[in-house]
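Hey,
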Amino acid sequence: MGKNLADYDFFDPEVIESPYEFYQLLRSQAPVYQLPGTNIFMLSRWEDIRRAAKDTATFSNDFIHLLKGPEPCAEAADIYAGGIEPVDTLLTMDPPRHKTYRSLINKVFSAGRVEKMRPYMERIVDELIDSFIDRGECEFVHDFATPLPVYVIGDQLGVPRSDLRKIKAWSDAFASRLGGMASPEEEVENARLIVEYQRYMAEVVEDRRASPRDDMISDLVNIEIEEGRQMSLQEAISMIEQLLVAGNETTTSALTGGLLSLIQLSDQLQTLLEDPGMIDNAVEEILRLETPSAGLWRVVTRDTEIQGVAIPKDSLLMLRYASGNRDERVFSDPENMDVCRHNADDNIAFGYGTHFCPGAMLARKEMQVAYAGLLRRLTNIQLAPGKNDLTHWPNVVLRGLKELHITFDRKA
């Protein structure tokens, strides 16, 4: 006897770890689903998600309170009280005010600028491969998938490489807080790291105001925005935080999950080895299948309905991108990888509409360059025997493997 939706608790760590049967049931039985006992409605179909993402008047991004995660324990709350209160900027702001901040990021992540970064990315990829290729094995998350995007976004921001371990720790803390599944001990550590980030970045912002450099932080904090003013310290810290998390967590997760799928599906890996020209399309398919930003929130501003389901004002709406990217109505045989899929780039891994991820071009380029370098220099890539449990970090918003141990041979 098959399962039904009543058998699933979305917030159960086991469901978060393996959600795809739940998603299938949602799409077929309740594409607009109210999570039992909550005011949360979840959209699971591709078209419904896209339509809601475009309607910012009804489905608002003003969810800054959700970025803070659940109400923290008393010890964590005391730590946050000594930090800097977050303010609305890019992610948690609706049009027309959203355009002010979006235009700044669009300049930073222009197509021309990202394409010019390719040789620089290729050097980083080769340096990272050099660091482990003689061993014939590595822990891919630690040795490659994490440092690549951290180096890239850190270098662009103008953070010294000696501080990049801190950058990663801070980014992980933000992601854990956003994910809403941290233990009390983790909440306290997250708070400590986030306030540490705020104090560190406050000094950097003030330094770049006084002595601008050729880096992204200098560009952001010295440009005039609305009414001829510069961003406040709180605005600048919020913007940089979003760039940090978006600039590395999701790319790390997509790179890792994509490599695992290629290892497990040797025919797909062989296709790329025989035709490296398919790598760009393979990246789109990996983004579709892995969807590292599994879902994001919206706040419902007025009584409305979707697919005949009434959704009251002040409800929360979860756009479940990871389900939409496996919608049978859009993608044939959606549970399986096909690096030659003709419409792989119809994925919504980076969202849709006004809040389409501004760093999408950068993430795609990093993934394209990364897989090209790996497949050019490594062969016989396999899972290291006895070292992988292939579990993901518990998080309702982001999805990423904890670790991936691989073995390989050096390509002649």
